[in-house]
From TrEMBL:
Residues 24-78 form the HTH cro/C1-type domain. InterPro entries: Cro/C1-type_HTH, Lambda_DNA-bd_dom_sf. It comes from the Bacteria. Pfam families: HTH_3. It comes from Anaerotruncus colihominis. This is HTH cro/C1-type domain-containing protein.
């Protein structure tokens, strides 16, 4: 039985594995944790965590479980096996919740503003 996260034949999991680094880094940053803080809480060294966040290496199941617990995420959220099939960061979830509170007219305005921003902003600009 494989102890890695990328299990063959599971399309959603395989797709999620390509995004795992992004997901792990986003989850850590959304919780205002540094790599050093993650190391202190889990024992995972910075170089190893950096490898996970940059898709150079994959955590084993025990390490994956540690990170999910620390980041307060479920495996379904990360692997995209839940109902939505994709990972949503805490910041993205906040945007969704705020958007849903707006009246219909304001929603259209927000969408138009976001479209304008994304069109005018060069790729890679942070």
């Amino acid at each position: 039985m494989p102890d890695r996260l990328g299990l063959p034949g599971e399309e959603a999991s395989e797709t999620a594995m390509h995004n795992l680094g992004y997901i792990l880094k986003s989850a850590r940053e959304d919780r205002d944790l540094t790599q050093t803080e993650v190391m202190r809480r889990t024992g995972i060294n910075n170089k190893t965590l950096s490898g996970y966040e940059n898709n150079i290496a994959e955590p084993d199941l025990t390490t994956f479980a540690q990170l999910m617990e620390l980041y307060q995420l479920s495996a379904d959220q990360v692997l995209g096996t839940g109902s939505s099939g994709s990972f949503v960061t805490a910041s993205e979830q906040e945007l969704i919740e705020l958007y849903r509170r707006l009246p219909k007219k304001r929603r259209r305005e927000v969408l138009e503003i976001l479209r304008l921003i994304t069109r005018s902003r060069p790729q890679g600009d942070e």
